[in-house]
Amino acid sequence: MLPASLSSLHSTNVRTSPYLSPLSSSSSLPSPSPSLSLAPSFSHLHHRRLVSFNTVRGNNPLATKAERRGLSVTCASTCEPLKVMISGAPASGKGTQCELIVQKFGLVHISTGDLLRAEVSAGSEIGNKAKEFMNAGQLVPDEIVTAMVTARLSHEDAKTKGWLLDGYPRSFAQAQSLENLKIRPDVYVVLDVPDEILIDRCVGRRLDPETGKIYHLTNFPPETEEIKARLVTRPDDTEEKVKSRLEIYKQNAKAILSTYSNITKKIDGNRPKEMVFADIESLLSQAKREKMKKTTAVKPVHERKSRSNQVSSSQDNWKGIPTRLNNIPHSREIRNYFYDDVLQATQRAVNDGRTRLKVEINIPELNPEMDVYRIGTLMELVRVIALSFADDGKRVKVCVQGSMGEGALAGMPLQLAGTRKILEFMDWGDYGAKGTFVEIGSIGANEVDEQDDMFILVAPQNAVGNCIIDDMKAMTDAAGTRPVILINPRLKDLPGSSGIMQTMGRDKRLEYAASFENCYFFRLLYYAGTQYPIMGALRMTYPNGYELYKRVDVPSGGEKYVILSTFTEKPSSDDINDAFLGKPRNLGHG
Ligand code: AP5
Description:
Shape: elongated
Low-confidence stretches: 1-78, 297-316
Mean pLDDT: 78
Structural class: alpha/beta
Protein name: Adenylate kinase 5
Organism: Citrus sinensis (Sweet orange)
Helix content: 25-40%
Keywords: Kinase, Transferase
Largest sheet: 9 strands, mixed
Radius of gyration: 30 Å
Bound molecules: BIS(adenosine)-5'-pentaphosphate
């Protein structure tokens, strides 16, 4: 049989405790006491030690085997450090856990409570203003705290070692201040402890003014009588003030959570501190690994080879094209394979700064010309891509075209009918990404909001008599340099209702459609006029070239895909046929 055509081209609790400390300094930024890590020293607040996790070699227990052998990319130079926020009601154990986190991960601990207490103790202007609010168990005005935090975050150590923000943001306005500055954590840890326990913890809390260590009269009693004798109580630790602090915390917690819903990790804080820390440790280790993976997944442009040389490198982590693609419905494994393949290519392209992208994937379930088409598969693919970018802190707008035309001509392509509803009702994960980081909208300039970071357009297509391109063009103009990703677009001109092709402005429309570059392409190839058996496949993943595969039956009864040829540009039907027939290569196509 001749392969004549392509089928359907188609502070251990160390905390500052300046109040009541007989040794408090009165200068505004006092130098550390020579023998004591006494409170209002900023260097003390930065915490001493530690092995930075940026050092990936040696005995770092968090390093992977490859890292310990010095094989991985050196995170110190290429990996962005970890950024963590810890939150929870008063006395939920934030300070206690921060000390352990700092010891393990080497992050710079920034506690607004500590910073403020240092200012109070130093008798600075800020301290004097803050004092009355703190002693009353109320929040210090946003402008004071925000200025303090942003100044501290801009220090070099926080930039290079990563940071652990404790007690900030404490209101929606504070969270928005950070958002406006594009300061976002990788993880937002919330310690969850019942109210009655919190009150007991506060009332029983004592601080050692000499070491800054936090004790509790019954949970963590001081080691010696001498220490016990010098312990002090925080002025805001009376039952009445704790209740007021708790109330304020509850009023604000929900609003702050909405800002970080997709990265929030709730931890049961009503357990021994070691158990609480074990959970936090595994969470942060995981976050760190993911950061490293992302850094290593995308090589800097200068390290990339030319497109024609990419195929072998693209095979490194790739297990080959899955078999049994004619089995419908596709298995979950097959669907997941393709979702992942598309996602990785799309992420690479977006991370490289590409802004006009398209994904074309024509496995049988996603080919509207086959009667096995499943809209659910398309929706799942869109969700995987949107949530993945949302996980990176991007606000993604997923857009479906509305019905086009007017009166009797109103309509939309059949397979898109109801899509928007499906997207609205889909499960978008536990952390309520939809409504915060993922929004559903329509295709058009009106949908482009200032806070949107990127747009995914679901199968935009021309309907008979109607052209979606004008709406798309207006939308991409409004989006500016923000990425717009088309998933399975069909932007070829269709005849008008009169059966005549609309010619006005056609060139411009085609030019616009062609301005989107493929970041992913997959198409099964069939023998002319058939949809069985599969002849082979054509695959392209950004930034690699096109790979042409032939499907071959394996004597044992299975099948496999073997690579026939590679192309720098999308091959034509003739190129593909020639490759299948073993004819010499058309050099024009690489
Ligand atoms: P801040 O110092 O941040 O106080 P907080 O949030 O109320 O938290 P705490 O320090 O009271 O408790 P914690 O969660 O750190 O618990 P700890 O580890 O000590 O802020 C103080 C004030 O500053 C605020 O009220 C406000 O006025 C102002 N302020 C701060 N940030 C602000 C902002 N962003 N905007 C405006 N104003 C701001 O543990 C508590 C006790 O429990 C200890 O005794 C400890 O030993 C014990 N304990 C800890 N873990 C456990 C465990 N697992 N089991 C048993 N006991 C435990």
